[in-house]
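Q&A log
Question type: sequence-to-structure
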Amino acid sequence: MCKTKNKHSGFSGSLGFVLAAAGSAVGVGNIWRFPYLCAKDGGGLFLLVYLVLVLTFGFTLLTTDVAIGRRTKQNALNAFGTLHKKWRFLGYLTFLVPTLIMTYYSVIGGWIAKYFAVYLVSDGTQAAQDGFFTSFITSQVSPIVFMLLFLALTAWVVYCGVEKGIEKYSRYIMPVLLLLVIGIAVFSLTLSRTDDSGVTRTGLQGLVKPDFTGMTLRSFLNAVLDAMSQLFFSLSVSMGIMITYGSYVKDDVDLNKANGQIEIFDTGVAFLAGIMIIPSVYVFLGVDGMASRPSLTFISLPRVFASMGGVGRIVGIVFFLALGFAALTSCVSVMETLVANCMEIFHKSRKEMCAMVGVYSLVTAVTICLGYNVFYFELTLPNGSAAQLLDVMDYISNSFLMPFISLLTSILIGWVIGPKWVIDEVEKNGEHFGRAKLYSVMMRYVVPVVMLILFLTSTGFWNLLFRH
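Response status: OK
Response body:
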């Protein structure tokens, strides 16, 4: 039985912070979104673009969020008001992001739990059958049951607090997750198949070899924008999570070193996810197997596992266990951000706010589950993609609010407060911030422009600009 604390608590040290922050960063976005985008946007070309953006934009946004949290010792809701009273509204905008994400993240976690259970109790061939995923998510009971199991586990970890809950479980889950991902990636590299024409097919080239076939300025810019949007998923920036986690970091922790470790861990897992998924899908299903996010994970991969024969069940169990761990650590960080903010708003204990946020998460997640049957509808988003209820929540939080929040944050830090405010926090204990000049240039000049372009893209301006 864990004991909770009502007031501000923190991580025990640098390792606890890095593992918890990496756990937040490494989520289903790394494992189901990164490989799909990598295959879609030129393989090694997307990978190269993404690495450049991580070392520039990623480090800038991550450093900003963590530094704001540690220096103000406030969660996102109050941190911006502490920085500048007229910018308090930015904290409320930031609060909206996890509020929206929490409506559907446990639903996706429930999908993962369902598939893990299928492979655990059977040979998993039913998961590879046509229509299995659709029949599951459109049923009215089963998705809710598995969502409840995932949400209950998430709430328990958050209820236990920062050190006894989030940090403790991250210390166990993250090393296991890393080992599982490495194991499947190594296995995936051993796969090959000779087709009917006698050609031996391997899939690693699809990940690391740049593909310039049919490359145009528009397709390259789309790849850059896809890589930029992936940063939000991967690093948990501009959603209040890293500000909240930063507020739990002790003053003697080297932020520059810790942030660098988070970048390496997160990017490494994303790359390993690509090795884990792309070669196996190419070998067994070809290029057509790299469908969009949910289809790749819940339709294409089960078919790959079925094609492996007897070993496919074992690979399926390990894969969905790893994906489940990734989803859990990310969902915990989202819920923790909501709980921490609500503790400040309502001046209640962690126990009471966990209960309140838990009820909110339950009601909204059930609504999202019913969005595939009872509340089903379709509409076209401003960026041109078709959507239903879950997609709408995802679009508003990740494609609309997060670029907008990053834009406003870069203006606040770059031009109102000044980059030196963040740099001083990073160098608080005499540590050298080697990328200080890069940080200043990025925050003042580069981030505002790119975030404006990304925001306009999410509103449909990009499609309008390139309309024939």
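Response note: The chain has one domain: 14-372.
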